[in-house]
Amino acid sequence: MEPTLRDPTDPLIDHAEGQHFLNEAFKVIVEEVLCKGTDATQKVCEWKEPDELAVLLDLELREMGEPRGRLLQRVRDVAKFSVKTSHPRFFNQQFAGVDYHSLAGRFLTEALNTNLFTYEVAPVFVLMENEVLRSLRQLLGWTEGDGIFCPGGSMSNMYAINLARYRLFPEVKSQGLWSVPRLAIFTSPEVKITVSNSHYSVRKGAAFLGFGTDSLILVNVDDRGHMIPEDLDEKIELSKSQGVVPLLVSCTSGTTVQGAFDPLDQIADVCGKHKLWMHVDAAWGGSVLFSKQHRSLMKGIDRADSVAWNPHKMLLAGLQCSALLLKDTSQCHGANASYLFQQDKFYDVNLDVGDKSVQCSRKADCLKLWLMWKAIGSNGFEERVNKAFVLVRYLVDEMKNRDGFHLLNDPEFVNVCFWFIPPSLRGKEGNADYPSRLAKVAPVIKERMMKKGTLMVGYQPLGDKVNFFRVTVFSPLISHKDLDFFLDEIERLGINL
Amino acid sequence: MEPTLRDPTDPLIDHAEGQHFLNEAFKVIVEEVLCKGTDATQKVCEWKEPDELAVLLDLELREMGEPRGRLLQRVRDVAKFSVKTSHPRFFNQQFAGVDYHSLAGRFLTEALNTNLFTYEVAPVFVLMENEVLRSLRQLLGWTEGDGIFCPGGSMSNMYAINLARYRLFPEVKSQGLWSVPRLAIFTSPEVKITVSNSHYSVRKGAAFLGFGTDSLILVNVDDRGHMIPEDLDEKIELSKSQGVVPLLVSCTSGTTVQGAFDPLDQIADVCGKHKLWMHVDAAWGGSVLFSKQHRSLMKGIDRADSVAWNPHKMLLAGLQCSALLLKDTSQCHGANASYLFQQDKFYDVNLDVGDKSVQCSRKADCLKLWLMWKAIGSNGFEERVNKAFVLVRYLVDEMKNRDGFHLLNDPEFVNVCFWFIPPSLRGKEGNADYPSRLAKVAPVIKERMMKKGTLMVGYQPLGDKVNFFRVTVFSPLISHKDLDFFLDEIERLGINL
Ligand SMILES: Cc1ncc(COP(=O)(O)O)c(C=O)c1O
Ligand SMILES: Cc1ncc(COP(=O)(O)O)c(C=O)c1O
Asked: Which residues get modified to N6-(pyridoxal phosphate)lysine (chains A, B) (predicted)?
């Protein structure tokens, strides 16, 4: 499409040509991403060094456009060199797998290209978001409340902190933090000796919202990473005695690395006693609420003031889909921009939800979850959650049966943290250089798997624990044989270390 | 899909069945959204009252899933009752039209479902985002710098404010606003007599980031809505004399309602004199930089410290696509979560961009823009921008030729603000009840067009100006005949008022 002197009365886009391209691109997507990308006999990633990949992709943007064939090849290349996150051997992150109903919802959302702003411009999505949030709240045991979909769990956590601040000191919205006493946010440490607990977004949020990271008061955790309610109580008393006003507790249902669930009921008692806002970061763990068998992990959730829950993680809704759920219904983010939210409309302007958000344009993140939910029902989600726990049990049992796999501890959720001990290190636990040698194992296995393209799983150090793997097992696409492969492949990659 | 006692060794999702559904859904999307939805002979919206629509959509989420045919009908219903934002008669927002290359990029992004986090998990997108940001910075006239895609321009503006605060007082990240003097943010008023200027996100941002909305110091504007640099200078001096530290000026290139461009060069002089961070909110207007003919509207942009630019608006990249561009390269958002960003990787960990963001999961918003840019080149964007200005000129000339259309003023950009004066009010400007009667015209025309489904355009009051329409003319899909229709239809709808 070169710039030519076209008649300005003509549109610049040809629908037939455009739809033809879209059709061809759709076929490439199905073939490369959905067929090959989920086929266990194909690679999960096609590793290239950054410099090499940059050349292969020819990323530079130029003055002139390119012909259709070249563009389709670009679609194919992007697919080819991207990681196949739906692949049954992708265990690297807190998302994996693909749900086709959700994906159809995502395509539809993109094609409709609207903004969750007013009822007028997004009638379907305004009503649908309300209904989806209501259904999520129902799982928390709340009969009323509010909520909003945010661009990720980190933002959801920030909203909660901001709302808590507003509830306690509404003047902060106009006068700023200078007008209020120092405030404290209580959460568990991100890294403490052997465990990881609260997500780093609480810290980032404290900085972004102007509190500063020193406002975080870290509550002790037990050896499995659960916040200790008695210590919370003491820390609250202590900060009060120092003239700081305790604002909020952010506890976690399903920590990022180890999948620990904080004891919500006891924390709620402490919050009740001190009148603190209780926020639960259930970004990762919230989905257990679908399971009658496992939802007791979150006993006490009905007592929270706010909950962050990411259906884009365990539920496969696809990035981004994160709900902030609120028990209280008083708003704080409104800017009352009368040029955007006119009050003299011919319908109920309470449906103009845009002013609830600190965003202005906001993607419709509800349809994909809604369509998937319609397709499989709450029962379908329950089955998936239960299955994940069964698979984790299988994996853990297999690890215990094999030499060389050493668990950090018995998993509470679908995160399994373990070291692979290569033969050369077995029985050498007492040696002085054991930890430093073990620390080098995971990075090398990781490099090998990436270059071979057979598997993806992440590792990290944590406090005094040297690099270990964390595998997340929840994709409904996987089966025992994928877990067998997982273990075999780790052994193959690490046997000679 | 009912829950049955399935063998846990089996996957829960059937790819063949899933892909079949996706194929069928794709056909519905093409037919309903892309064919009918862009066909001028079809409705732009299918208005239903909220209660009625809720019943039609049967939104409730239940225990049991539904069969394929029912789900496809749901896809069709969502499409049917949603507003067709790509329709040539949709002038309601700062987005409109459809670009098929961008849309293909969006489908591919959704299917790949990744997270712009580390090179390991998003190799293509990490490199691509860098390149797209570099190309956008080049248009600003910068040879180096940094940047990030944010979930919307409001977030981009907040990032800029946060970075400015960090540059001036790095200790604020740990110690919070209590540790620093009161800070002031300068911007033009959102509503001032006849003009609208800065976007309300600056105000929301000031509240969210803990400054409070009182930290905003409103700079006077001329009668077209341009910030007056001399007044900025005086306001800065004044706040200094009051012991407040001036932090940042947020000026606007392309205001939301009227499309005004602030005089950047003169504002840069004032910022230089006082060492203030100069942020330019070019969310809406930034795209003029593609046009040799029109980019002088943003003369001085190279002197800014940060720029927010939304390709999801005028460039048709699709929601969400918003870049924050930074001249400085020092980072502030990092949380250094070692469990997420391991330092002992086998590639350059500077490519692990996740820690730049206050988000954790972050959608890949670059591919759609990149693919569209590859398809039409910078020249293609230039042609689209130039064409928009030509169409605006045509519309304005037509309005001047017709009775009953009264412009607020001659447009500087692609926003055209006007009143429709129905015959019964013509020549009655002197009457005491004229403003109150005129105020009622736009809402009634709006209601009629929505119920008829022929057109969508927004209205608002502004200061002492009663309700007027703002039409944005930039979709490359439209032509003179769509603008003729626009005027004819407004006349038809308002003639008897
Ligand atoms: C416990 C927890 N909270 C919050 C988040 C952040 O969610 P998001 O990635 O959507 O910002 C995560 C995800 O990594 C998480 O595991
Ligand atoms: C001038 C201006 N700035 C910022 C924004 C906010 O951008 P977004 O809607 O992406 O948050 C808008 C959009 O309405 C705008 O017009």
From this structure: 313
Q: Which of B128, B200, B391 sits opposite A337 (nearest CB)?
A: B200
Which residues form ligand 2's pocket by a CB distance below 6 Å?
A 359-361; B 94, 152-154, 199, 201, 252, 254-256, 281, 283-284, 310, 322
From first CA to last CA, the distance across chain B in angstroms is: 55
CB of B282 closer than 8 Å to CB of B255: no
Cβ distance B212 to A172 under 8 Å?
yes
In this structure, which residue's CA is closest to atom 9 in ligand 2?
A: A361
Euclidean distance between CA atoms B99 and B94, whole angstroms:
15
Task: Render pLDDT for B63-116 as a digit per residue (tens, 0 to 9).
Answer: 999 999 999 999 999 999 999 999 999 999 999 999 999 999 999 999 999 999
* pTM of structure: 0.96
Name the residue of B92, B154, B157, B314 whose CB sits within 8 Å of the most ligand 2 atoms, as the mutation to test its pocket: B154
Nearest ligand 1 atom to the CA of A151 is 10
Q: What pLDDT digit, counting tens, does each position of B430-464 carry?
A: 999 999 999 999 999 999 999 999 999 999 988 88
Q: How many CB atoms lie within 10 A of CB A244?
A: 16
Nearest to A111 by CA among B473, B132, B82: B82
What is the per-residue DSSP string for B431-461? Answer: STTHHHHHHTHHHHHHHHHHHHTS-EEEEEE
In 3D space, the residue among A428, A427, A374, A402 whose CA is nearest the CA of residue A489 turns out to be A402
pLDDT of A1 reads 42
Task: Give the gap in angstroms from C-alpha A280 to the nearest C-alpha of chain B.
Answer: 17
